[in-house]
Amino acid sequence: MSADKRDEALIAAARAAADRSYSPYSNFPVGAALRFDDGTVVTGTNIENASYGLALCAETVAVSRAMAEGRRGGLEAVAVTGPGAHPITPCGRCRQVLNELAQLGSTDPDILCVGPGEVRRVKLSALLPAAFGPASLD
Among 88, 9, 100, which Cα is nearest to 62's? Predict the structure, then answer.
C-alpha cells in the first residue's frame, strides 16, 4: 500500500473513532488513530464526564489501548480529527502522552492534523520541542 493510501486509511480510522465519541457536554467529537511500524492501527475517541476534569482525550485513549495491548514503541504516525473548520492538533497533555510512547521506540511520528478540507502534517518533535520523557530520568 502506498504512503498516501496508508495515510488515507489512518485518517478514515480516526474519523470512524470520532463517530463513537461520548461528548455530550462539549459536542466536540474527536477521533485519533495510531499507526505502528507493523501496520497495526489503534484508535481512540474522547470520552467526557459530567465532572469535566475527568474527561479523556482521544489520543490518550488510543495510547492507553495500545499500551494495554503491550505496544512499546514503533509509533510511526497519528491522525487526529474533530469538528470545525480547521485541522486540530493534540492538546499539550496528549502531546506528552504520545511522546512517551514514541520515545520508547526512539521514533518521531508524523502527526496528521485533520480538518474538513485540509491535512497538516507535522512531526511530534515540532509540536513538543525539548520534550521530557523516559530518557530524562537517566
Answer: 100
For residue 31, report the phi and psi dihedrals to the nearest 5 degrees.
-125, 145
Write the class of the CATH domain 3-128.
alpha beta
Q: Is 59 annotated in the active site?
A: yes
pLDDT per residue of the chain (138 residues) written in tens, 0 to 9: 788 999 999 999 999 999 999 999 999 999 999 999 999 999 999 999 999 999 999 999 999 999 999 999 999 999 999 998 899 999 999 999 999 999 999 999 999 999 988 999 999 999 999 999 888 898
> DSSP readout, 46-99?
-B--SSGGG-B-HHHHHHHHHHHTT--S-EEEEEEE-SSSS-----HHHHHHHH
**Which one of 8, 48, 59, 118 is the catalytic residue?**
59
% helix, strand, coil for the chain, step of 5: 35, 20, 40
In angstroms, rounded to a whole number, what is the distance separating the alpha carbons of residues 50 and 68? 26
Across the chain, which distance is largest between two alpha carbons, in Å? Answer: 43
pTM reported for the whole predicted model: 0.95
